[in-house]
Specification:
single chain, 325 residues, four-stranded parallel sheet, 13 helices
């Protein structure tokens, strides 16, 4: 599996949806050398963290514009200049090769790789083992070193698990405190507030999904491995890790049979990826379709204006599809 193709093209695509972020994302003059702590983020989930934790003290810019396919992002000369002028870069190594390369080549002092702040796993293309998560030690997350090959084999969608996203947030907060000590107290306070909200979101998901008629859900591709693992669900992806690939006839028949066996009612697709395959499967298997947003960006099609609103919309969609009581 190649994480580079695992990225939900168009979804990550929407990378930087918040108005404040997109407003400055194309303005190189606003990127560096301001009187604030200038942070260049790779795509929406990273930029959201930077804004929430940095508050008024940070100036956040995203390398990925809404509508772009993040994994195919090419870094422009202007964006390289933005990186050079910034105080910090916040990215998720293995997700966007061009960003990884650009960050490594810049002299930027603070480079924050979110992949080192929690434990990444290889979720393959379908189900999960809930026990795998239970056995992970909290120790050494930030020190964990993976070979290049291992990195590219691991699922980057950690932001879809509120618990893992909170771990990343805590690491980002500490990095901000160290890089900009004058505002460390505020970064610490903002991080604590964000983690509290993420913990509450986790509670909403735990309570909302604990009593359902089925634990199996179908998605366009395998973006929800961490979410499924966290809440004892099983994700079955139509197209595996590559949302652009067409499933084989055998795979479609297998899913039709599984839908009957497991009481699956719904095939989920993404707002920014073609729903053709999902709707074809749904029609053949007499299932419904709905949106489950991998939150790689916020656009006008998103069910909400920020991470928390879209995640609550995802929870509502899952509860309906799984027959929550």
């Amino acid at each position: 599996m190649n994480v580079r193709r695992h990225l939900i093209p168009a979804a990550l695509a929407s990378a930087l949806g918040l108005g404040a972020l997109t407003a400055c994302s194309s303005d190189s003059a606003a990127t560096g050398n301001t009187d604030k702590f200038d942070v260049v983020a790779s795509f929406y989930p990273m930029a959201f963290l930077a804004e929430q934790i940095g508050g008024d003290h940070t100036n956040v810019t995203s390398l990925t514009e809404p509508g772009q396919e993040p994994h195919d992002l090419e870094i422009s000369t202007q964006q390289r200049a933005q990186l050079e002028e910034a105080d910090a870069a916040l990215y998720l190594k293995g997700l966007q090769p061009a960003v990884d390369e650009a960050v490594s080549q810049t002299g930027i002092k603070t480079k924050i790789d979110a992949a080192t702040l929690t434990h990444l796993e290889d979720h393959g293309t379908g189900g999960h083992s809930h026990e795998e998560e239970e056995g992970h030690s909290e120790e050494g997350h930030s020190e964990e070193a993976h070979s290049e090959e291992e990195e590219h084999a691991r699922d980057p969608h950690v932001w879809l698990d509120p618990v893992k996203y909170a771990e990343v947030a805590q690491g980002v907060g500490k990095a901000f405190e160290k890089a900009d000590p004058d505002h460390a107290a505020d970064y610490k306070k903002n991080t604590a507030a964000l983690v509290k909200k993420l913990n509450e979101l986790n509670g909403d998901f735990e309570n909302g999904l604990k009593d359902t008629k089925t634990k199996v859900f179908f998605t366009n591709h395998a973006a929800f491995g961490y979410l499924a693992e966290r809440y004892g669900l099983t994700q079955e992806a139509i197209s595996g890790l590559d949302p652009e690939s067409e499933p084989s006839g055998a795979r479609v028949r297998e899913l039709q049979q599984e839908a009957k066996a497991d009481g699956v009612t719904t095939v989920f697709y993404e707002t920014l990826v073609s729903d053709k395959t999902a709707k074809t499967l749904a029609k053949d298997a007499k299932l419904k379709t709905d949106v489950l947003d991998p939150l790689e960006g916020i656009t006008g099609k998103s069910r909400g204006d920020d991470y928390f609103q879209v995640m609550e919309a995802n929870l509502k969609a899952l509860r309906t599809a799984l027959g929550a009581k």
